[in-house]
Amino acid sequence: MKNIFIFILIIGGLNACRIEESTQTGPLNIVVTTGIIKDGLYQILGDNVEITSMMGPGTDPHLYKPTPGDVDLLENADIIIANGLHLEGKMSEMLRKYGQEKLVLNVADGIDKGDLIKSADFEDSFDPHIWFDPTIWINGLEHVKNGIAAVDTANKSTYDANFNAYKKEVLMMDSWAKEELGKLHEAHRILITSHDAFSYFGRRYGVEVKGIQGISTLSEVGLRDIADMVDFVITKGIKSIFIETSTSSKTAQSILDGAEQKKYLLKIDGPLFSDALGEPDTKGGTYIGMFKENVEIIVNGLK
């Protein structure tokens, strides 16, 4: 009798799930943390879902604090998508709690740990700026696509086809970036940026990367750090350092001022897109567009 009772409970639970699925009307409501994720998913999912990004152009996700409006978005979301790897530092605990009541997917969970770069700032953590290696970023998006398709089974074949087409575009961009950066003399392939967001980029394209700040923009920069960077710039004969759209230019200006004091000619280039896309309907407003614009700015600045 006890076994029969358990069986009835199980069947009842399954039927409840089916009822819940069958009462889903209209497209899935998906909330993502960053515009970079939103653009990738839009290319794959298209108009079959509604995608809303919490963070807009030029937003620093390391410092972002959720607003009351964000809480409403998350409460009403069918699925929540985040980058993971503590990129959404101040939101991580909130996202973990939502994961107990609805589907929360991290792009980073689709990437092999062997492909991740260890964080220099935080022990036992990884660099979250995974979109700067397109060959692993696309794997993360595939993981998210599969998670959504498991819920929205009616559109799975469309999502698979869209993903395969988008993957080809991303890998073509990757090949183009390799070719463009390969035109730089090896001695000139040194990229100094406002914060350490470009390690995956450097590894992928054979560029030495140094951030004035650490992986997180919460990292402090001291006078000794500025002096050491000035010495490095002069020793290596670097012509340009780069600011970013989502961080302050103050630290880069400190490097420039220090170089001028030593009678060394240095310029600030950029801004580069690092943690956020540009404005909608601009070249930097899409993942592929912002990536290409970054490559062009870097190549021109380091010639």
Q: Would you mind describing this structure in some detail?
A:
The protein folds into two domains: 150 residues, Nitrogenase molybdenum iron protein domain (Rossmann fold, 3-Layer(aba) Sandwich); 119 residues, Nitrogenase molybdenum iron protein domain (Rossmann fold, 3-Layer(aba) Sandwich), CATH 3.40.50. It is 47% helix and 14% strand. The protein contains ten helices and eight strands. Strands 2-1-3-4 form a four-stranded parallel β-sheet, with helices on both faces. Strands 5-6 form a two-stranded parallel sheet. Strands 7-8 form a two-stranded parallel sheet. Helix 2 packs across helix 6, helix 5 packs antiparallel against helix 6 and helix 8 packs across helix 9. The chain is globular.
Helix fraction bin: 40-55%
> Helices and strands, in N-to-C order?
HEHEHEHEHHEHEHEHEH
Low-confidence stretches: 1-23
Number of strands: 8
> Which structural category fits the helices and strands?
alpha/beta
Characterize the biggest β-sheet. Answer: 4 strands, parallel
Number of helices: 10
CATH homologous superfamily descriptor of the largest domain: Nitrogenase molybdenum iron protein domain
Strand content: 5-15%
Global shape = globular
Tally of distinct domains: 2
CATH topology of the largest domain: Rossmann fold
End-to-end C-alpha gap: 80 Å
